[in-house]
Structure formats: structure tokens, C-alpha cells
Amino acid sequence: MGLELVIFIAAILFGIFLYWRESNGNGAYRFLNKTMNSKELQMSADNPKGFVYKQAFLPRLIFVVAIVMIAALVVEFLTPLAVFSSYNGISAFSSFAVGTLIGTYVASFVIKTTEVVEEKSDSLGDIVEGAVEKGKDFIEDLKTKDTKVVEEAKEEIKNDPEPEVDQKSARDRLKDKGLM
């Protein structure tokens, strides 16, 4: 269990690195796109899409599993480690694939939130200042409304007629009904 956890965390870091690297440049994806597609089907020059960057779930999953599969085949045939012939090897393979996929989504979240914060950083001070001013106005309104409400309540109490003295208590009413 300890080794799988280490592999999983390393895979998350690898996924973050992979996503960050593709967000800075997509040369390999662009080269593959040029070699595989005709001129009409090739991606535009300003398209930032990569193997995992700005890609939907299914293509991202296929790419990650293919890369991990290639790496596992290299390890299987060049080293004495048996990746595909034991439960531990298959478990490590799947942990690495899932961790890499999760890492790409973590990196996507971090990059998108960083962009949003950078966009909003100029207006963030204005937003906070506006919220503080609205809060002060709200507190002032509560103070003035409280005094008005208290005065109205006092007037209602003065205007209310006193309750009738003839009313019987609950005990007396129960006795009259024969319940007590």
C-alpha cells in the first residue's frame, strides 16, 4: 500500500507537470497534427489545444493511458521488472494512469483560478471597498430602524386596552368542564 501511494502521488505531480508543460507550448501536438491531417483539417496557428491541455475527458484519458502503457512496455522489456504479469504491476500501472489524469485536472483548476484572479485583481480592491461601504450602510439602517420599531412598539403597548378581568384561568375552565 505504501508503494502504491507513492506512485499515485508521483503520478499526480507528473500530470500537473504534463498539463503545465502543454499550457506553455504545444509543439508536439502541433507537429503530430501537421503530419496526420491534411491542410484543410489542420489546427489553426493560434489554437492552444494539446494532448491534455484544453482537451475533453475522453481524448485526455486515451492519451494518458497510451503514454503510461508505452512506458510500462518499455519497463517490461528493458528491465527485469514484470509490469503486466503480476497484480502489483497492474495495480501500479492503473494507479499511475489515474493519478496522472487527476493531476491534469488539478493543474487545469489551478491555472484557471490563477487566470481569474489575475483578471479580477484590479477590481478586487474596489469590490472589497464597495462591500465594506454597503455593510456600513446596512448597519446604519439597522440602527435607525431599531429605534423606529421600538418607538412603534411602545405606542402600541400604550394604545392596547387592558385585558378583561372577567376571564377565567385555565384551571377554572377545566374545572367547569369537569376535567379536573
Distance between the termini: 73 Å
What shape does the CA trace take? elongated
Largest sheet: none
Query: Runs with pLDDT <50, length 5+?
Result: none
Structural class, from helix and strand content? mainly alpha
Output mean pLDDT.
78
- Taken as a percent bin, the fraction of beta residues is under 5%
The number of helical runs is 5
Word description of this protein:
It contains five helices and no strands. With 180 residues, the chain is mostly helical. Helix 1 packs across helix 4 and helix 3 packs antiparallel against helix 4.
Q: Which features characterize this protein?
A:
180 residues; mainly alpha; 5 helices; single chain; elongated
Secondary structure layout plus pairing:
Elements: H1 2-24, H2 27-36, H3 57-78, H4 87-159, H5 170-177
Helix pairs in contact: 1-4, 3-4
Concise account of the structure shown:
The chain is built from five helices and no strands. It has 180 residues and is mostly helical.
